[in-house]
Amino acid sequence: MVAKAQKWGNSLAVRLPKSMAEECGIEADSPVEILRQEDCIIIKALVKRQISLETLLSGITEDNLHSEIPTGTPAGKEFL
After folding, report:
1. d(CA 24, CA 13)
2. SS3 state at 74
3. Rounded to the nearest 5°, which phi and psi values hold at 8?
4. Domains, the chain
């Protein structure tokens, strides 16, 4: 496919065909990463990783576990 770079403010813009964007999981306002490798420009969709609670908790060790933080006396129903 051939496209044309067009001026957009002080930058250049290239339109992505809807079908190609959909195949790559890109839609309006989707975050993308733009990389340059030698003389090529690569646009990659950024996908949010789903991290489970178990994965997060597995990173807790004796070395990075902090002690309780005093916050004063209960002000509401926290004591129940």
Report:
1. 18
2. coil
3. -140, 95
4. 6-49 (2.10.260.10)
CA–CA gap between residue 32 and residue 24 (Å, rounded): 11
The DSSP symbol for 9 reads T
What element of type H or E holds 70? none
User: Alpha-carbon distance 13 to 5, whole Å?
Assistant: 5
pLDDT value of position 79? 66
pLDDT tens string for the chain (80 positions)?
A: 899 999 999 999 999 999 999 999 899 999 999 999 999 999 999 887 788 999 999 999 999 998 898 888 878 887 66
The per-residue DSSP string of 26-57 comes to --TT--EEEEEETTEEEEEE--PPP--HHHHH
Distance, in Å, from the CA atom of 37 to the CA atom of 2, rounded to the nearest integer, reads 20
Mapped onto helix, strand or coil, the DSSP state of residue 71 is coil
